[in-house]
Design a protein that fits this description.
By secondary structure, the chain is α/β, with parallel strands linked by helices. The chain contains eight helices and nine strands. A five-stranded parallel beta sheet has the order 2-1-6-5-7. It has a two-stranded antiparallel sheet with strand order 3-4. It is elongated, with a radius of gyration of 23 Å.
C-alpha cells in the first residue's frame, strides 16, 4: 500500500516510523510519504490560508496549494486513489471503514487546520471523515489514528494474523477480559475456566463476557451487531440475570 499525507506540519508524522507501522515500512508492506502543501503556495509569504468571503471568524485553507500538491502527487504516483479529507463534519471513522481502506492500493489524507477548507477542495476527495464528535486543532492526530487502524487489517502487519479479528469492534462486540501469568497476583486470581484446558468452556466464557461488557458499556453496538443464534440466546440469559 502507498499512503500520502498532505499537511503543513510534516514532522508530526515521525511517530509513524515507530512500532508496528515502522516495521511494516521497513519490510516494504507500506510506503508513507508526507507532503507539505505549504511548499506549493504561489505567494511570497507562503500563506496557505485566507479570510472567508462573507465574513466570519477564523481562516480557511486556500484551494490552490492543495490542488497543486495533489497534482504533484498524481504526477509522482499515478493511479486510482482514495482521497480522505479530515473534517469534523465527515462520516465517523469505524472498523468497517478501516477494513475498506486496507483494500486500497493508494490512500491520500488531507489534514486540516484553522476553520477548515475552501469548499472547492472537496472536489478532490472521495471521503470526508471524522474520528468523533469533538474538535481537535488539526487533522494530523486523526490521520495517524486512521492509518494505524487501517494497517492492522493488512496481511503481515500484525504478528498474529488472528489478532485484528479478535479485538474489540471487529465482530460488533467489545473484547472479553484477558489475563497472563501469574495465575494469582496479590490475591486476584485468573478465572478458573481459563486454566481448565476445556476449550469449549473457554470459548463460551469469553463470548459471554464480551456480551456482558458490550451490554454494560456500549449497548448501542448491540443494536447493529449481527449476532448469531447462540449469541442472542446468551444475551437473553444475561439480561434475565441482571
Amino acid at each position: 500500500m502507498d499512503i500520502t499525507i498532505l499537511s503543513i506540519f510534516p514532522r508530526m508524522f515521525q511517530a509513524l516510523n515507530e512500532s508496528l507501522i515502522g516495521k511494516a515500512q521497513e519490510r516494504g508492506l507500506v510506503n508513507i510519504d508526507v507532503v507539505d502543501f505549504r511548499d506549493f503556495t504561489t505567494n511570497k509569504q507562503h500563506h496557505v490560508d485566507d479570510t472567508t468571503y462573507g465574513g466570519g471568524a477564523g481562516m480557511l485553507f486556500q484551494a490552490q496549494p492543495i490542488y497543486d500538491a495533489m497534482e504533484h502527487v498524481e504526477a509522482k504516483k499515478p493511479g486510482k486513489k482514495r482521497v480522505v479529507l479530515l473534517d469534523p463534519a465527515g462520516k465517523t471513522f469505524n472498523t468497517k471503514m478501516a477494513r475498506d481502506f486496507a483494500k486500497e492500493d493508494q490512500l491520500v489524507f488531507i489534514c486540516g487546520h484553522y476553520e477548515g477548507f475552501d469548499e472547492r477542495v472537496k472536489d478532490l476527495v472521495t471521503d470526508e471523515v471524522s474520528i468523533g464528535d469533538y474538535i481537535l486543532t488539526g487533522g494530523e492526530l486523526p490521520t495517524m489514528s486512521m492509518i494505524d487502524a487501517t494497517l492492522r487489517f493488512m496481511p503481515g502487519v500484525l504478528g498474529n494474523s488472528f489478532s485484528a479479528e479478535e479485538e474489540s469492534f471487529s465482530n460488533g462486540l467489545l473484547e472479553y477480559p484477558q489475563y497472563t501469568k501469574p495465575a494469582d497476583f496479590r490475591g486476584k486470581k485468573v478465572p478458573e475456566v481459563l486454566t481448565s484446558g476445556d476449550h469449549e468452556k473457554i470459548r463460551l466464557w469469553r463470548l459471554t463476557q464480551a456480551l456482558k461488557k458490550t451490554l454494560e458499556r456500549r449497548p448501542d453496538l448491540l443494536e447493529t451487531a449481527k449476532l448469531t443464534d447462540e449469541e442472542k440466546k446468551l444475551l437473553r440469559e444475561i439480561r434475565q440475570n441482571r
